[in-house]
Amino acid sequence: MPYRHTIGSRTYRFDDLKTLLARASPLRSGDVLAGVAAATYEERVAAQFALAEVPLRAFLNEALVPYEEDEVTRLIIDMHDATAFASVSHFTVGQLRDWLLSEAADAEALQALAPGLTPEMVAAVSKLMRNQELIGVARRCEVVTRFRNTLGLRGRLATRLQPNHPTDDPRGIAASLVDGLLYGSGDAVIGINPATDNPKAVSNLLHMLDAVREQYAIPTQTCVLCHVTTALQLIEQKTPVDLTFQSIAGTEAANASFGISLSVLQEAWEATLALNRGTVGQDVMYFETGQGSALSANAHHGLDQQTCEARAYAVARRFRPLLVNSVVGFIGPEYLYDGKQIIRAALEDHFCGKVLGLPMGVDVCYTNHAEADQDDMDTLLTLLGVAGCNFIMGIPGADDIMLNYQSTSFHDALYVRQVLGLRPAPEFEAWLQQQGIFDEHGLLPASTSSQLLKQLPPALR
Amino acid sequence: MTPDLPNPTPANPEADPWAGLRAFTAARIALGRNGTSVPLREALAFKLAHAHARDAVYSTLNTEQLLADLAAQQLPVCQVRSQAPTREAYLQRPDHGRQLDEPSKKLLAEQAPGDCDIVLILADGLSATAINDHAGPLLRLLLPQLQHAGFRLGPIVLAEHARVALGDEIGQLLRARLALVLIGERPGLSSPNSLGAYFTYAPRPGLTDEARNCVSNIRPEGLGYELAADKLFFLLREALRLQLSGVGLKDLSDLLPV
Description:
The complex is a heterodimer of chains A (461) and B (258).
Chain A: E1 3-7, E2 10-14, H1 17-24, H2 29-34, H3 41-52, H4 58-61, H5 71-78, H6 82-85, H7 93-101, H8 107-113, H9 119-126, H10 131-140, E3 145-146, E4 150-151, E5 158-161, H11 170-182, E6 189-192, H12 199-215, E7 222-224, H13 228-236, E8 244-247, H14 252-257, H15 262-275, E9 285-289, H16 293-296, H17 305-318, E10 323-326, H18 339-355, E11 360-362, H19 374-387, E12 391-394, E13 399-400, E14 405-406, H20 410-420, H21 426-434, E15 438-439, E16 442-443, H22 451-454
Parallel strand pairs in A: 5-6, 5-12, 6-7, 8-9, 9-10, 10-11
Antiparallel strand pairs in A: 1-2, 3-4, 13-14, 15-16
Helix pairs in contact in A: 1-3, 5-17, 7-9, 9-17, 9-18, 10-18, 10-19, 13-15, 17-18, 18-19, 19-20
Chain B: H1 40-57, H2 63-70, E1 77-81, H3 87-92, H4 94-97, H5 102-111, E2 116-123, H6 128-148, E3 153-160, H7 166-173, E4 176-184, E5 195-201, E6 212-218, H8 225-242, H9 247-254
Helix pairs in contact in B: 2-6, 6-8
């Protein structure tokens, strides 16, 4: 069904819902590359006017990717909670925006609504919102998850300690790991991107991480970010797997390009749950996403990249994840050209994920061929701190020497915690204080944190 | 009397007590801190590394130098461009970087010297600096090996605003059995001039990554020239012998020493 909006003497026509969403999307290079972006600034605003008038029910009646062809569409439609949707079922997209911004939309109301909203509805409403509105609404959401500690509580900001090494050298990894712990990083997860997906190599890393965690009795979880099928194999071999990781996307075809399907994820979820390794909860999945992944797999079905991204969150929420991380700036300038586009996309992803009920973290990051630098990351980091982001990355000096991109450093986490009064996850915070690394105000002088240094992990002795 | 002025403390904070761990990794660990910030010397070291990477992205092929470097091989050289008119366009439109512009197409069609085994393309990619620094030394080792083995080499093509797949169109126009692209890789903070070598057998537009083989991180601090030349020579010879490239050849390259 076509949608129209007239500005002056010119009537813009948008052939279907996905075209309308794409034309209404704030400018970014990936949508231009895909050929779905508005041709002019005026057309974009015309699309936003038209989108504001679309009833939310339209998203239940008009699948953007055909139901018969795409299991993510089927998941979205089949799992839709009509009862939760009832309170907003008479709204247009514009009215949903107005309600989200109203005082009625408190944490409880947002949480109750989440299962009633589809990713496409949330993507649509985000296109009508300014950055400050994406921040303001997301800040009201509280999404708490648990494994060996409690993540996502109000006033807390966690970090993933990411001690990557180009050749997975155990000493190199251990050195970065110890550095991170001594800077108070690692409550979200201690997670390594392995240089190889070889099961034996991944298993060695998992055993090493588990030994370090046990040695210091750290109330956190560990993960080696291998392919889900590798994790399944390792679980069968009784390897200590806390969390199962997988990159996911918003269409069946894009997921197929990652070598996954919903059934493989289901199998991995069940296998990981059966290990029963959590102490305060059993949220065992860790997902990563990012705008542009569907287009780069030529699996976007003519959708704009932000709507595709939001659909990935439907995949994520099916499996009650501990962590969902938008690796926003990693994909490169052909999808998000500069700091402005990266910042906008990150705030959209965080907002959409949170409103859909996900424990959203963001990898505040960029590559060297993007028009961005550490100043842009400081801006985004601060905005996400205000927005109540669940976690960010912690990488030595913000420089990942394995993945060759720049993210946030251990120091960056200290900064954002200090200026915004944010604290680590409660169990991890207690451990940091017990180790003499933190006091109630934050990081102590390095000379006090000696306990860890007296008993270094075996790899470093 | 001047009033007591506060000392900027610490002026140059010490590295952390665990600075010894730096021996185990090139990661930026034990940086020390000034409040919650990294010490100034570390902040500037990071900025310098990023500056090198940014400069590499916007660097251009040093054609004069390359021509001089390649003169000894006595091969014809031609220069082409992709459909990306500027660096900004190149960064946002990888599809344009994979296609020749019209004058370049015409040039190659006119110059096509008849069939050849290997056409060599020097592409700026994301770091022309990588080509400027490493193409000469690498080719001085590789080209004589190929010539000695009796392979017929086509002209050397210098390509501007080029992606890897541009080599497939060039290879087809020059009727080469195999296209070898040397290209500047995406710069990292510690590697602004890393060179990649990609090749396809039976090159033609529309091929994707699984049809290609790659030898990456060619630079003295990574895969050195001699090892890279030997590895490439072995793989190119096998690709031409087996008449394939890509996944089918991949297992073979895994057997090679790195």
